């Protein structure tokens, strides 16, 4: 920050930048009173303004003070980075929010890697900043001028999208947020990583099981080759990420994939979506367990508390039995509780069966406009799924509304159903957990 300059002539400037660095508001005010133009000065090496320093250090009050003096929120440093980019790099969410409110441009590209603030938030795994930037992109003129989808999938100088960077760095929550916002799971890089890498190649390279899982459940292609002809499986093997390689092995069971998000998930009720998400994670975990069985790799990654919790509850199902009884038993699998209700017909089934009904092994780009799934009981189109209410009379077995119609309608279910029924046998405690969740306001 200019400390290297020994010339006495610059000392007010040095003092000013030191005060900014340590958010000494009084000293900053003093400098500004003496010389208001000092706000336009920059540090010697990076040409960072006080604005940049305040943003990267998360000094919100100071940042607001500078913004109050009508400084251009998109000042550039030596690398053409804006204060917003620096705040996104350092995960200073309050500064990110403040800068966006002040009209900072989220569409600026720096000159180091040709990246936007979205790339930086994704690369450094700052998911709250990422979410804030995406929300801003939806509500500002970016959506009109550029198109939201284009912004989410913008490439940096080496052809990497924010999803590529998040997958490479192993930031699962960023991967999930980006996918939820329309990031293309099949995008290929130009030069980043190995040329022609997909996000799955990069997750394999980084060795993140969480990211591999997330991408696979979004339909990432295990057979996609990069420009040197390697599939993600070989990338994981080469980097000695054995557990990832096991999941990526094209010979292992296909993962379950979310239904076409555009067509279907947007119409999902939030509670129902949470239940289905649980069921999907559950089914894929059980699949993983089978794949990894007999290998040297453990199923539960240490950073995944949920997975560990599941292990603990393995022999403890009885504890939850009474809660599960509050729901009717699913008439398709006769194994899980009915937690999802089809509207308008009101038929109920468990989350695992619903998922089997709506899931396709991998979205086929040529048939992306699939017709809506139909209710397995009455064959009417499913307009909407909601979380089923538990019975108010838990002790008494209710005669299922589905029961009489059930036997004739099973043949309509996809074959994936059978797999899910087996895989999801540990679902009861998950459903109990979910019902707890639903009770919250
Ligand atoms: Zn079921
Ligand atoms: Zn129905």
Automatic annotation (TrEMBL):
Keywords assigned by UniProt, alphabetized: ANK repeat, Metal-binding, Repeat, Transferase, Ubl conjugation pathway, Zinc, Zinc-finger
Record bears the keyword Repeat: yes
Regions of compositional bias (Polar residues) in chain numbering: 431-441
Enzyme class label: transferase
Region described as Disordered: spans on this chain: 389-408, 421-441
Keyword RNA-binding: no
Pathway the protein acts in: Protein modification; protein ubiquitination
ANK repeats: 46-78, 79-111, 113-145, 158-190, 195-227
Family matches, as InterPro entries: Ankyrin_rpt, Ankyrin_rpt-contain_sf, RING_XB3-like, Znf_RING, Znf_RING/FYVE/PHD
EC number: 2.3.2.27
Top-level taxonomic group: Eukaryota
RING-type domain: residues covered: 330-379
GO molecular function: ubiquitin protein ligase activity; zinc ion binding
SMART domains reported for this sequence: ANK
Catalytic activities: S-ubiquitinyl-[E2 ubiquitin-conjugating enzyme]-L-cysteine + [acceptor protein]-L-lysine = [E2 ubiquitin-conjugating enzyme]-L-cysteine + N(6)-ubiquitinyl-[acceptor protein]-L-lysine
Protein name: RING-type E3 ubiquitin transferase
Naturally occurring in which organism (per UniProt): Dendrobium thyrsiflorum
């Amino acid at each position: 920050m200019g400390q290297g300059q020994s010339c006495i002539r610059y000392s007010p400037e040095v003092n000013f930048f030191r005060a900014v660095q340590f958010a000494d508001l009084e000293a900053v005010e003093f400098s500004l009173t003496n010389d208001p133009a000092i706000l336009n000065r920059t540090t010697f090496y990076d040409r960072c303004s006080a604005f940049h320093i305040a943003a990267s250090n998360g000094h919100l009050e100071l940042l607001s003070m500078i913004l109050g003096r009508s400084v251009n929120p998109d000042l550039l440093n030596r690398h053409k980075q804006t204060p917003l980019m620096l705040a996104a790099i350092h995960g200073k969410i309050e500064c990110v929010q403040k800068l966006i409110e002040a009209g900072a441009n989220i569409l600026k590209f720096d000159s180091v890697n040709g990246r936007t603030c979205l790339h930086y938030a994704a690369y450094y795994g700052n998911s709250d900043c990422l979410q804030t930037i995406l929300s801003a992109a939806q509500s500002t003129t970016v959506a009109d001028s550029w198109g939201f989808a284009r912004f989410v999938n913008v490439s940096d100088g080496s052809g990497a999208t924010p999803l590529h960077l998040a997958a490479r760095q192993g930031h699962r929550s960023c991967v999930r947020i980006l996918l939820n916002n329309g990031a293309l799971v099949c995008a290929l890089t130009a030069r980043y990583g190995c040329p022609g890498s997909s996000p799955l190649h990069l997750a394999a390279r980084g060795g993140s099981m969480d990211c591999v899982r997330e991408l696979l459940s979004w339909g990432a292609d295990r057979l996609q080759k990069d420009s040197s002809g390697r599939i993600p499986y070989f990338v994981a093997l080469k980097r000695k990420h054995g557990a990832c390689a096991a999941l990526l092995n094209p010979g292992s069971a296909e993962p379950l994939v979310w239904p076409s998000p555009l067509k279907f998930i947007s119409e999902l009720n939030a509670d129902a979506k949470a239940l289905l998400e649980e069921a999907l994670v559950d089914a894929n975990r059980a699949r993983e367990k089978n794949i990894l069985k007999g290998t040297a790799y453990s199923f539960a990654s240490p950073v995944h508390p949920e997975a560990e919790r599941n292990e603990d509850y393995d022999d403890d199902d009885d504890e939850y039995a009474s809660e599960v009884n509050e729901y009717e038993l699913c008439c398709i699998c006769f194994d899980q509780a009915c937690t999802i209700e089809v509207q308008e017909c009101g038929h109920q089934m468990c989350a695992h069966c619903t998922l089997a009904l709506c899931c396709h092994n991998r979205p086929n780009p040529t048939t992306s406009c699939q017709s809506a799934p139909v209710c397995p009981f009455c064959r009417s189109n499913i307009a909407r799924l909601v979380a089923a209410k538990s019975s108010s009379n838990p002790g008494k077995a209710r005669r299922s509304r589905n029961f009489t119609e059930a036997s004739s309608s099973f043949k309509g279910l996809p074959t994936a159903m059978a797999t899910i029924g087996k895989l999801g046998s540990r679902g009861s405690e998950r459903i109990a957990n979910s019902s707890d969740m639903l009770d919250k306001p």
